[in-house]
Amino acid sequence: MELLTTIIEAIQDKKGKNIVSLDMTATDGALCSWFVICNADSTTQVAAIAAGIEEEVEKKLHQRVWRVDGAANALWIAMDYFDVVVHIFTTEMRSFYKLEELWADAPVTHYESEQ
Questions:
Q1: Of the candidates 41, 42, 43, 38, which has an alpha carbon nearest to the alpha carbon of residue 10?
Q2: Domain segments of the chain: what residues?
Q3: 14, 52 in Cβ contact below 8 A?
Q4: Which residues are 73's β-sheet partners?
Q5: How far apart are CA 17 and CA 38, in angstroms?
Q6: How far apart are CA 90 and CA 112, in angstroms?
Q7: How many angstroms separate the CA atoms of 94 and 97, rounded?
Q8: Is residue 32 within 8 Å of 49, Cβ to Cβ?
Q9: Among 105, 103, 55, which residue's Cα sits nearest to residue 79?
């Protein structure tokens, strides 16, 4: 849970919006224990959120991200920390893909974010 908390705090620090976590622990075939999803209004902010997460997790937990995809265009960056996979979308991409709906049965936690 410390990894999840650190990631959420890093997103909040960079003003990520509509932050949710999906508890995947009871989902058959899930690749991780948690999905964290948020969005931002620009690719610059999406990249800043990803960089902030990476920096905070390394600083506080001495853990490096295993894989990052999507950083080149920053429309949707996915970060894999094994137990936690983070999805950072532009607002438009999140609305289009509706990733949360793929796991509608997973328990969802909503977090405070700057609007």
A1: 38
A2: 2-104
A3: yes
A4: none
A5: 6
A6: 18
A7: 5
A8: no
A9: 55
Burial 2-31 (b: 16+ CB within 10 A, else e): ebbebbbebbbebbbbbbbbbbbeebeebe
For the segment 23-35, what is each residue's pLDDT rounded down to a tens digit?
A: 999 887 778 999 9
What's the confidence (pLDDT) of residue 98?
93
Instruction: Please give the average per-residue pLDDT across 12-38, as a whole number.
Output: 93
Q: What does the pLDDT average to over 20-47?
A: 93
- Distance from C-alpha of 48 to C-alpha of 74, rounded to nearest angstrom: 10
Superfamily of domain 2-104, CATH level 4:
Beta Polymerase, domain 2 (3.30.460.10)
Instruction: Check residue 49 and give its pLDDT.
Output: 98
CA dihedral 68, 46, 42, 102 (to 10 degrees): 70
